[in-house]
Amino acid sequence: MSGSPSGSGEGPAALSGLTSLSARAIAAGVRSGELSAAAVLEEHLARVERWEQQVHAFNLVTADAARARAAQVDAAVAAGEDPGLLAGVPVALKDLLCTRGVPTTCSSRILAGWCPPYDATVVKKMAAAGAIVIGKANMDEFAMGSSTEHSATGPTHNPHDLSRVPGGSSGGSAAAVAAGFSALALGSDTGGSIRQPAALCGVVGVKPTYGLVSRYGLVAFASSLDQIGPFARSVADAALALDVISGHDERDSTSLPGEHPSVASRLGRGAEDLRVGVIAELASAEGMAPDVSAAVTDAAEALAATGAKVEEVSVPSVRYGLSAYYMIAPAEASSNLARYDGVRYGLRRDGNDITEMYMSTRAAGFGPEVKRRIMLGTYALSAGYYDAYYGKAQKVRTLMIRDFDLAYSSFDVLLSPTSPTTAFPLGAKTADPLAMYLSDVCTIPSNLAGHPAVSIPFGAGEDGLPVGVQVLAPALGEPVMLQVAEALEAVAPRGEAR
User: Fold this and answer.
1) Cβ distance 196 to 187 under 8 Å?
2) Which pLDDT tens digit goes with each residue over 122-158?
3) For residue 67, how many other CB atoms are within 10 A of its CB?
4) Of 4, 94, 416, 455, which is the active-site residue?
5) Which CA distances in Å does 324 have to 213, 351, 394?
6) Is the pTM of this model over 0.90?
7) CB-based contact 123:133 (threshold 8 Å)
8) Residue 102 forms beta bridges with which residues?
9) Using CB atoms within 10 A of its CB, is residue 272 exposed (0-12), middle (13-18) or buried (19+)?
């Protein structure tokens, strides 16, 4: 499969017509009657028809259901009703968000053909806001990966260069937005799985505060880390989507109670007089490419030029984030994935007894990366090793929260790279798991702390591919975080290579 260079004016990343409109513009047009939801949908489906075979952003395209939903939205508008804030906006859903009667596979053979009997809370909220689900997006199996190559349905390709990865694990969601298949997408972020593919695909990706968005109906990877968030082509669109899906849910015991301010409430205010700290340890993290490091420097200088107060800050414990994460997340995964045994869900392989059936089913159903992490997590939790590995990792997590709290006592937001490199070639890191894991070195700390973070496109690297810069904030700091992100977006280079 040939690549298509970024900025060439050709290929799936070159948008035009209704597919180039923002989610806000589509919703405003549909709500006013100037646009029809059906026309918007058909143009997006035409792009899917043109490019999906090369990109493979989806495990399933739900065209018929989407057309029926678009007709409902248009009928509501014709009747004088308001379909909602996302009226007629095409949305892609990562294939671990439960959709009633529609296959939800987590890109795994073990869940092939499984149809949930209910919708995830975020899916219900999107529907209530008038959004139109266009398909279930490809992903690394059970969200375990950084390239969307660990999928039973095959890899997703980066719309900016089809020979490169889109990042992961939510690579299909990021690619769908970058390719104009959908104006918005939802993904999940356990260690960077929204922000890292957003950076590699040149779109905006938000990981919210842990508990701000309900996890009910999200197929779990690591329950203390997982969080659902949006992809968009602008900060304002991402803020709109996040406002739609956030809020307390009594069906999720980790959902934050009470009312929370609109995350879009501070957009348009700029970054003047805000305090921005550039995280020293992440700016020089292992494997950091010079062009990515230069982008963060440029972003810091651009914010300073708008009136922000920018200084370097040390958050010492983030250097241990990768090690702590790869104890905690696999340990939780080994527990969560024990339910896939051939009895209750999807695939089943027969055996002479129940133990053999379990073993045969799991051997056939899980891919190599999932097996690797299950074994790593089971080992970390086993007798004699719990305190040395899992327990110590949790202590590092506590230390990291304290270090972030100290940093936020002096700064409103923090700044860092999102990914150490631009999109790497397909197959470049699949044989070296440790090299793949380093892709998340800058994103993992926010998950361990439970804090929000957003990746914003900020120009291009030496190879002409997108570079992402990350803005981090304390818990429930989304309004100020997105205020700074929007200010950064306004001064970002438009795809120029460094």
Assistant:
1) no
2) 999 999 999 999 999 999 999 999 999 999 999 999 9
3) 16
4) 94
5) 24, 37, 7
6) yes
7) yes
8) 99
9) exposed
